[in-house]
Design brief:
The complex is a heterodimer.
Chain A (H helix, E strand, L loop, with lengths): L6 H17 L14 H16 L18 H13 L6 H17 L2 H12 L5 E4 L15 E5 L2 E12 L6 E7 L10 E7 L5 E5 L9 E12 L3 E2 L5 H14 L12 H10 L12 H29 L11 H19 L17 H12 L6 H12 L22
Parallel strand pairs in A: 1-4
Antiparallel strand pairs in A: 2-3, 3-7, 4-5, 5-8, 6-7
Helix pairs in contact in A: 1-3, 4-5, 4-6, 7-8, 8-9, 9-10
Chain B lengths: L6 H17 L2 H9 L7 H10 L17 H13 L6 H15 L2 H13 L4 E4 L15 E3 L2 E10 L6 E8 L2 E8 L5 E5 L9 E14 L5 H37 L1 E2 L2 E2 L4 H30 L4 H27 L10 H14 L3 H17 L1
Parallel strand pairs in B: 1-4
Antiparallel strand pairs in B: 2-3, 3-7, 4-5, 5-7, 6-7, 8-9
The chains are: A alpha+beta, B alpha+beta.
Chain lengths: 411, 371
């Protein structure tokens, strides 16, 4: 048991460091997904192109598709080193290369693959994923966006929501209902779509935090060709599972500093007085809370190292990584709430220039509710752990043998 | 990156699991729990001695197997899962570790081979009254090599041949090795939360005491030994917590209510998912503790505190929610849930309560950040 690279990994790391030293953009700053401005996008695209030319864009993909023909652990090592030099600019391509293009690879004909894979790897074209709808978030198969056949074409009407990057994406994969008379999961079909098609409108969502990282996408009489279909007609649910499987297969770099945000609360507590008039950092109740956050954050960091160990040995990581987002989001919310209360009346203020830590705790307080929902709610993640990790039965389903059009709907 | 146990270590763990499944089924734990005259399962103890496990981390020159602490962690996980009613922790995690950390060569020669051979049970005696042990709580004292005072509870104090005792000498606390079979020692069995693990009150009236480690550094040394024991105990706790989850899962899958298995209700599924999350957090923190213990890393105090806090939290949660999942059956004496519930508290207290470890964790982080 150690934290060292194997000789092969060390050699790869050295090679990557040398290359990054010579090629990585200086002083670049990655932004959270959806928040990028045009300058950020240009910088991301330029960096992606450079990586693709050197085989570092999709390290684990075969060379024939523009990848590096490397291993999962090499991918992780590269992303660790990329983060170290502050060049983690791949955000805008994450959904396309992580989910959409793998779906295209698994389902499309050779011509379509040749058309799209290269430009996506090189960062020339950005993709988005259009699954969630106002009527179907956790219950993705409940979507109502309709596609109606008209000759060799399909006409799409409806609305998608929570689509990251839709406002700058060139292409997307979209899951639509093609047979409302079939049961819920049997009447869906997947297509790729040009986001500049007439009738497609992306509108930013104004989040409770004030930011706008996601979009609503409206489809009004959007016409696409049947040749844009990914997979078989009415088999879109199975295709969407390919997409989502790829999302789960990606394991992060196991990075992050020791203790996560817990130590930032401790720094705050040194500068703030507690109820008894001493530094809040001496308050035993607060110290207990910090210890709780610390061991949870460290538990995740070390769980990440266990997953990396499996990758290093050429194995698939175990199910332990499934706890990550659930724990991280809840720690973030609890920590932000306690930190803001620590500031007492002053905690009401949310001004970067006035609030301690550039108002990081106030920002986190307003962002963390979204963390507990995005990419699987707490409740869905617990279902996933219960069903897929522990092997407990699925829920009793009342929507299984009913035509979609006959299912009751709420607001 | 190699943050996992080796194949050999995993094989040792699997062998230990098979061995204990056969030698230590729950009936054997119950037999000790329900018979007030039984301090431990002596047949199991002898079988474990024969496996060589007591000497797993004791160097070969002192009669051990000289494997290492990672191997000991693997054994600990299985002992915890099986609730082994034997004086293993007292003898190995506390007594042997104390001798390894602070003993003179002569002390090592005297005790370690006996421990490895199963010829002596060791105990660690620090507590005298309710609340965490500190300089203010130590009344026992040594004058002219003779110990007077009272210690309770002392886990395995009834059967130990020797104990390491925290006592004042010239007004400052130090650790002493005391032969419990000699004169000036009286023992009294205590009723406890977990009678599958024996505990006693030890009264010393002029017992011969030999100092372990430097004078005046008893508390520091005690904490160093607690750190080492905490990592090993954390593996026992992780083993027990995982077993609680398995039991709750098996029960929920086979218990039907309102026409369906209770495992199909989200109230139960989410509860079991929460147990799983805590168990994995505890396991990962314990792995870090194992690494720090095995390499004698400077990070050991932080790693041990993290492992202990996470493991205490996970085991308690798993044990109490396993009872809850079992419903009324869980509250009966016949169902095994309470064996784990009892042990989860015994392990959470035997090296000092989690509240104290949280404070130690934060104090160590502050110190390492200041340094």
């Amino acid at each position: 048991m150690d934290f060292n690279d194997t000789p092969d990994e060390a050699a790869y790391r050295t090679k990557v460091r040398g290359w990054l030293e010579a090629n990585a953009p200086k002083g670049a700053q990655g932004r959270s997904l959806g928040d990028e401005d045009e300058g950020d996008l240009a910088a991301s695209k330029a960096w992606q192109k450079k990586k693709a030319e050197a085989g570092y864009a999709q390290i684990t993909w075969p060379r024939e598709w523009g990848g590096g023909g490397g291993t999962q652990i090499q991918r992780v090592i590269f992303s660790q080193e990329e983060a170290r030099v502050g060049a983690s600019l791949g955000g805008p391509f994450a959904i396309g290369l992580g989910m959409c293009i793998p779906t295209v690879m698994a389902t499309a004909d050779e011509e379509t693959k040749k058309r799209f894979i290269g430009p996506a790897v090189r960062g020339e074209e950005i993709w988005c994923q259009l699954f969630s709808e106002p009527s179907g978030g956790s219950d993705v198969a409940a979507i109502r966006t309709r596609a109606v056949k008209d000759g060799d074409e399909w006409v799409i009407n409806g609305q998608k929501i929570w689509t990251s990057g839709a406002h700058y994406a060139d292409y997307g994969i979209v899951l639509v209902r093609t047979d409302p008379d079939a049961v819920k999961h049997k009447g869906l079909t997947m297509f790729w779509i040009d986001m500049k098609s007439p009738g497609v409108v992306a509108r930013p969502i104004h989040q409770m935090s004030g930011a706008s990282g996601f979009n609503e996408v409206f489809f009004t009489d959007v016409r696409i060709k049947d040749s844009q279909r990914l997979g078989k007609l009415h088999d879109g649910w199975n295709v969407s599972i390919i997409t989502l499987m790829n999302e789960r297969a990606s394991v992060g770099g196991g990075g992050g500093s020791a203790g996560g945000g817990s130590l930032s609360v401790m720094r705050l507590a040194r500068d703030v007085l507690g109820a008894g008039g001493e530094a809040a950092a001496k308050d035993p109740a607060l110290r207990e809370k910090i210890a709780d956050w610390y061991i949870q954050s460290e538990g995740l960091r070390f769980t990440g190292m266990r997953s990396l160990t499996a990758l290093s040995k050429g194995q698939m990581p175990g199910p332990e990584a499934s706890i990550t987002k659930l724990v991280m989001a809840n720690v973030a919310q609890d920590l932000a709430s306690q930190a803001v209360e620590l500031e007492d009346q002053f905690g009401i203020i949310q001004e970067d220039g006035v609030s301690p830590a550039k108002a990081a705790f106030q920002h986190s307080l307003m962002n963390s509710p979204g963390m507990r929902i995005a990419g699987g709610t707490d409740e869905i993640l617990k279902n996933i752990i219960a069903e897929r990790v522990l092997g407990l039965p699925g829920d009793i389903r009342v929507d299984k043998n009913v035509p979609f059009k006959d299912l009751p709907v709420g607001r | 990156m190699n943050f996992d146990f080796s194949d050999d270590q995993k094989q040792l763990r699997d062998e230990a699991r098979r061995f204990l499944a056969k030698e230590c089924p729950p009936e054997r734990v119950r037999a000790v729990l329900t018979d007030a005259t039984k301090t431990h399962d002596d047949a199991l103890w002898k079988a474990v001695v024969a496996q060589g496990w007591l000497g797993a981390a004791i160097p070969e020159e002192f009669g051990g197997l000289g494997l290492g602490h990672l191997e000991l962690c693997c054994i600990a996980e299985e002992l915890g899962r099986a609730l082994a009613p034997i004086p293993f922790a007292s003898t190995v995690y506390f007594f042997a570790e104390a001798i390894l950390v602070a003993g003179t060569d002569a002390q090592k020669q005297k005790y370690l081979p006996k421990i490895a051979a199963g010829d002596i049970v060791g105990a660690f005696a620090t507590s005298e009254r309710p609340g965490p042990v500190s300089a203010a709580t130590v009344s026992a004292k040594v004058e002219g090599g003779k110990l007077t005072g009272t210690k309770l509870p002392v886990t395995d104090g009834d059967i130990a041949g020797a104990a390491i005792v925290l006592a004042n000498e010239n007004g400052a606390p130090a650790l002493f090795i005391v032969d419990l079979t000699g004169p000036g020692v009286s023992r009294e069995t205590l009723a406890t939360l977990d009678p599958s693990r024996n505990a006693a009150k030890l009264v010393f009236s002029g017992a011969t005491a030999e100092r372990l480690g430097p004078a005046g550094e008893g508390l520091d040394l005690m904490h160093r030994i607690f750190d080492r024991a905490a990592v090993l105990l954390a593996f026992e706790q992780v083993g027990g917590a995982d077993r609680c989850l398995e039991m709750a899962k098996d029960y929920a899958l086979n218990r039907f209510a309102f026409g369906r298995p209770i495992a199909s209700y989200q109230a139960i599924k989410h509860k079991l998912a929460e147990i799983y999350v805590k168990n994995e957090l505890a396991r990962s923190n314990s792995y870090y503790g194992a690494w720090a213990l095995n390499t004698d890393a400077a990070e050991l105090p932080i790693a041990a505190s993290g492992a202990r806090v996470a493991a205490c939290d996970a085991y308690w949660f798993a044990a109490k929610e396993s009872i809850q999942t079992h419903g009324g059956m869980g509250f009966t004496f016949e169902t095994d849930c309470h064996l784990f519930y009892r042990r989860s508290k015994q392990l959470a207290l035997v090296a000092g309560a989690p509240r104290v470890w949280k404070e130690r964790l934060i104090a160590h982080i502050e110190r390492s950040n200041a340094a």
